[in-house]
Design brief:
homodimer, about 290 residues, alpha/beta, 6-phosphogluconate dehydrogenase C-terminal fold, about 15% strand
Chain lengths: ~290, ~290
């Protein structure tokens, strides 16, 4: 039997991503032990019942003591505080990574607190479902999906390599990217679609009662997909928008301009403009299908 | 063997819905014969090769001659012209129905042309995929979905009953509704989601080349769902927006107001407003799941 990749992995936070990673670490025997930390006692108890770790603690410093990999799996708003709490307990050589959706914010909130000799490898496994919490995780969630790592110029290549091997083991295709570039790409492919889904489902909620009950009843086609997206974890998504503000506002501005142009085309009956766009977007769908088959 | 529901059904147009219905008519032996009309010779040839009908013609009047049910399955922009063409060939007692997404427009464009004694039963089987054309159809597409019929006060109850039985046989849950009310409900559950999906995919297409290729590569989560929606038939959707203009503009206005409020919350870092909405939309998702289980 080959040596496991890690001796001790500390999972700080055990929601959908953290618990899915715990399943992968077990399945693939990537670590000798898993320490689980959560902020709330109730969540910790759930994780214990699910057998997601070997050690359970409400103290993040205790979780990371002796760990060679620390995975930050909490919402972005908790990053700075948790970094300050674990910093004194981190030994030189420890790798700290995260799974957050905004890489600029991850670097901003984690890096300053980390002691010298601790290796930060910001990461974003682009995978998930609309469910959340420790019971929602499953090992296969990462399978075939992208994991984007955003190492800094000073990131230790050996640390980057070990994090890469972990996500590859989970079945992910791992790429590296500049944090700011990551945040721009995700703003349009993930954050803006979520914002819009939340908005339209909210708009429907505010309808007159007679309309609203029928909207729920006949929620077919497009709207049903939107409600699925809009069922994602509220706190996580709040933090995404607050922490990727500039990129989201930039993409939102472009989207709004385009939507206003379409609104005008509908108002004035300019069918050719509508049809032209609809043909163009159909072609994009084909590119995406081809890119994923390639 | 019981008598089939119809002697001759004329399918005017044989795209995704028309071809799926043809499969149902065959499977359930609902008619003795099917006449297929298309505007383009090429599409008619495809339908013939697929064996979707018993008679094939480029002349809509020929298709409807002797039919006891005529199903209009063309985009809304072709309704008025096809109604004028078939009118002289329609015998009293014939039922005319359609499958279009906008019921106000269906009544407006079909009713005036129909001779006395011909029964109009406007209908909307709320089912589909992102694929289009005669080869895309399959009988199971309607299974478990809603079919909304919007009879007029003067619609013959017997005609309504026969159309209802056809869609029930296809596996649909059939309800009746006022045409204007249908158009408002569908504006928010279907038309607006499609418009938004088209827009955001268009916005992504217009990105700088470096970003664009990565958007295609990393099109995960939300965006991928949106590209699927935005791959739907361009002409059909153009006609939906042109023909349900008032309801779509009304819902679009509400949506834009809500989106602007969220944009402001993001800009000013008002996390509580974001979280409150995200919790509300999650609850709506649960109502929808419950409504469909009930």
């Amino acid at each position: 039997m080959s040596e496991p990749l890690f001796g001790r992995v500390a999972l700080l936070g055990i929601g959908l991503i953290g618990s899915s990673l715990a399943h992968v670490l077990r399945r693939d025997k990537l670590t000798r032990e898993i320490a689980v930390h959560t902020r709330r006692a109730e969540t910790l108890e759930t994780a214990r019942k699910l057998g997601l770790g070997d050690h359970y603690t409400l103290d993040p410093a205790e979780a990371v003591r002796g760990a060679d990999l620390v995975v930050v799996c909490v919402p972005h708003s908790a990053y700075a505080e948790i970094a300050a709490k674990i910093a004194p307990a981190l030994a030189a050589g420890t790798i700290v990574t995260d799974v957050g959706s905004v890489k600029g914010a991850a670097v901003r909130d984690l890096q300053p607190a980390l002691p010298p000799g601790v290796h930060l490898v910001p990461g974003h496994p682009v995978a998930g479902t609309e469910h959340s919490g420790p019971a929602a995780g499953f090992a296969e969630m990462f399978d075939g999906r992208w994991c984007i790592l955003t190492p800094l110029p000073e990131t230790d290549p050996a640390a980057l390599d070990r994090v890469t091997r972990m996500w590859r083991s989970a079945g992910m295709r791992v790429v590296t990217m500049d944090p700011a570039h990551h945040d721009m790409v995700l703003a349009i492919t993930s954050h803006l679609p979520h914002l819009i889904a939340y908005t339209i489902v909210g708009t429907a909620t505010d309808l007159e009662e007679t309309l609203k009950s029928e909207v729920i009843k006949f929620s077919a086609g497009g709207f049903r997909d939107f409600t699925r997206i809009a069922a994602s974890d509220p706190v996580m998504w709040r933090d995404v928008f607050l922490n990727n503000r500039d990129a989201v506002l930039e993409m939102l501005q472009r989207f709004t301009e385009d939507l206003t142009a379409l609104q005008r085309a509908i108002r004035w009956g300019e069918g050719d403009k509508l049809e032209e766009l609809f043909r163009r977007t159909r072609a994009i769908r084909r590119s995406i299908i081809e890119a994923n088959q390639a």
